[in-house]
Design a protein that fits this description.
mainly alpha; 2 domains; two-stranded antiparallel sheet; two-stranded antiparallel ribbon; 5 helices; 4 strands; elongated
C-alpha cells in the first residue's frame, strides 16, 4: 500500500487516509485494545511506525508526557543557543583586537560568563525540574531529588 505524510506530519495510507501508526498498533495490540487510547511514538518521530516504537497510553498521560517532552526540547534548544552565544563572545574577545576592531574585552567576558551560568541553570532545570516543582507546589521542601 502506498503512503504519504499528512499536514500534521503523520504517515497515512493514500487510499483511505488511515493513520499508519494506528493500523500498526491495531495489529500489535488488537482493535479493542486501542479504542479510546492514544498511540505514542517513543522516539518522538511521527514517521517511525515500527511496532517497537509504539505504545498505548491514556489521553491524560499522553498529554503530560508530550508536554514534558516538548519542555525538554525547548530547554535543549536554549542550551544550544546559549552555547553558540558563549562561543561568539569568546571569539570576539580573542579575535577582535587581532582584526583591529574596538571591542570591550571585559564586556564580552562578562557576557560569556553570564551565558555559562545560564547554561548551567538551564541544564539543571532540564535534569531536575526545580522551577516546575516550585510552581506546582511552592511550600514543599526539595531536598530529596529522584535520579
Amino acid at each position: 500500500m502506498k503512503t504519504e505524510i499528512n499536514d500534521k506530519g503523520y504517515v497515512v495510507f493514500e487510499d483511505s487516509g488511515k493513520l499508519v501508526h494506528r493500523w500498526v498498533a491495531e495489529k500489535k495490540y488488537g482493535t479493542e485494545a486501542i479504542k479510546d487510547k492514544h498511540i505514542h511514538h517513543i522516539d518522538g518521530d511521527k514517521t517511525n511506525n515500527d511496532k517497537s516504537n509504539l505504545i498505548l497510553i491514556d489521553y491524560e498521560d499522553h498529554y503530560i508526557l508530550t508536554k514534558h517532552e516538548n519542555k525538554q526540547k525547548i530547554l535543549m534548544k536554549i542550551i544550544i543557543y546559549l552555547s553558540i552565544f558563549y562561543i561568539v563572545m569568546i571569539c570576539l574577545t580573542i579575535y577582535a583586537p587581532l582584526l583591529g576592531l574596538n571591542v570591550e574585552r571585559e564586556i564580552n567576558l562578562t557576557f560569556a560568563r553570564l551565558s555559562v551560568l545560564l547554561i548551567l541553570f538551564v541544564t539543571l532545570e532540564l535534569r531536575f525540574g526545580f522551577i516546575g516543582q516550585r510552581i506546582r507546589n511552592p511550600k514543599r521542601k526539595y531536598l530529596n531529588v529522584d535520579m
